[in-house]
């Protein structure tokens, strides 16, 4: 790779969970003078159309579980290095917060290998955005003393002993990337003794105009929502605080079908991603 001596910092930043107004002022400033923006799927198109430098090269390098067309991580790493060494100002734009359930570590390691500087800007992660837009205080006093961020994107990612501990904790549990495994999640918690008066809230497309919240007591979940195919992205909140949604929900839900706010990934050859 040809290296330009005037290598600029690569900017890693979060776009928030959906609502384009949830990006930070610092992110906005960097987008306005970016040369290259490498963006994930879960980034509002409004952000790119409204706030990005009109002359910037925008590369869609998204991932989506079980979907062809997801960009391999090694290609994203190569793109970051390639354009940075050309002296371009590169923005790596991720949905939510840049460091929560993302491949930030892989990308930082790729830059370190070539001595490329970087800056990490925090954003609003999906848990905080979804909870706020659903009227759920994640650590409400007398309801929860802590909150845990987890994922169950595969059924075997949590061991039996930990399921037992999760079922008995009074912490708020927030599951990312678990829409396809929600039935299994509920089953495991019930099988391991979670109190039946514990609440669950499943939030589709949080903070967007298409947000929907499905809430109930956890022992009622299978009868009310079992086998439902949730629209991605979906975030799940389990705990006493989830019951507060019904009292404090403030965002009006639009009656729609299964419309998508975020475009699905499309099948691209690796060389097309680079184009």
Indicate how many domains the architecture comprises: 2
> Mind telling me the CATH superfamily name of the largest domain?
Tetrapyrrole methylase, C-terminal domain
- Rg is 20 Å
**What fold name stands as the CATH topology of the largest domain?**
Methyltransferase, Cobalt-precorrin-4 Transmethylase, Domain 2
Sheet of most strands: 5 strands, parallel
Helix content: 25-40%
Helices and strands in order:
Blueprint: E1 10-14, H1 25-32, E2 36-39, H2 45-51, E3 57-60, H3 73-85, E4 90-94, H4 104-113, E5 118-121, H5 126-133, E6 147-151, H6 160-168, E7 172-176, H7 182-191, E8 199-204, E9 212-217, H8 221-225, E10 234-239, H9 245-248, H10 270-274
Parallel strand pairs: 1-4, 1-5, 2-3, 2-4, 6-7
Antiparallel strand pairs: 7-10, 8-9, 8-10
Helix pairs in contact: 3-4
What are its keywords?
Cobalt-precorrin-4 Transmethylase, domain 1, Methyltransferase, Cobalt-precorrin-4 Transmethylase, Domain 2, 2 domains, five-stranded parallel sheet, five-stranded mixed sheet
Provide a descriptive summary of the structure in words.
This protein is an alpha/beta fold. It folds into two domains: 10-124, Cobalt-precorrin-4 Transmethylase, domain 1 (3-Layer(aba) Sandwich); 127-248, Methyltransferase, Cobalt-precorrin-4 Transmethylase, Domain 2 (2-Layer Sandwich). Helix content is 29%, strand content 18%. Strand 2 (36-39), helix 2 and strand 3 form a beta-alpha-beta unit. The chain is elongated. Residues 268-272 have low confidence and may be disordered.
């Amino acid at each position: 790779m040809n290296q330009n001596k005037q290598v600029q910092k690569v900017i890693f930043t979060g776009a928030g969970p959906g609502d384009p107004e949830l990006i930070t002022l610092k992110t906005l400033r960097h987008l306005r003078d970016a040369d290259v923006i490498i963006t994930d799927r879960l980034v509002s198109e409004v952000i790119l159309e409204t706030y990005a430098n009109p002359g910037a090269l925008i590369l869609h390098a998204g991932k989506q579980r079980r979907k062809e067309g997801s960009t391999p991580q090694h290609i994203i790493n190569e793109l970051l290095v390639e354009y940075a060494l050309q002296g371009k100002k590169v923005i790596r734009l991720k949905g939510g917060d840049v460091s929560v359930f993302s491949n930030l570590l892989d990308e930082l390691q790729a830059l370190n290998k070539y001595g490329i500087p970087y800056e990490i800007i925090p954003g609003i992660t999906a848990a905080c955005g979804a909870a706020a837009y659903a009227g759920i205080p994640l650590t409400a006093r007398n309801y929860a003393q802590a909150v845990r961020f987890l994922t169950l994107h595969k059924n075997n990612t949590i061991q039996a002993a930990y399921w037992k501990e999760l079922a008995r904790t009074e912490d708020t549990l927030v599951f990312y990337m678990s829409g396809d495994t929600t039935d299994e999640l509920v089953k495991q918690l019930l099988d391991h003794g979670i109190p039946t008066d514990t609440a669950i809230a499943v939030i589709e497309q949080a903070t967007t105009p298409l947000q929907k919240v499905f809430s109930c007591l956890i022992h009622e979940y299978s009868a009310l929502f079992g086998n439902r195919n949730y629209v991605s992205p979906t975030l799940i909140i389990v705990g006493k605080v989830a019951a507060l949604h019904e009292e404090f929900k403030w965002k009006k839900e639009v009656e729609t079908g299964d419309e998508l706010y975020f475009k699905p990934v499309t099948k691209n050859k690796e060389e097309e991603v680079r184009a």
